[in-house]
Write a structure and sequence with these properties.
Layout lengths: L6 H16 L6 H8 L3 H7 L3 H6 L3 H11 L7 H17 L3 H16 L2
Helix pairs in contact: 1-2, 5-6
Length: about 110
Amino acid sequence: MRWAPDARGRLERAAFELFAEQGFAATTVPQITARAGLTTRTFFRHFTDKREVVFAGSEIPETAARLIVGAPADLDPTQVVRHVLHQISAARFDGHHEQTAAWRRIIEGERRTP
């Protein structure tokens, strides 16, 4: 299993399972890697830290920058921002209702933890 493909996906699934079971703050990187059947070193090849599993690391800023550059020239700055935010949110959340609901439960659970 350790050399099976899709290490990043396995790490993401393991992390979200653990976040849902025991909360984000209580989950450690070694627990995530153990659940995924991978090494901690492999985790850090894909993510800087466990927050990046949730917030996509540099993926969103890089996508936003690319979309801003490619935005239609006839849009004013406010329209460009709205256009970019709409495209990013659609790509990230549309069709992913189950995953979005799981993220919301994890975040809400963290808010309740003193």
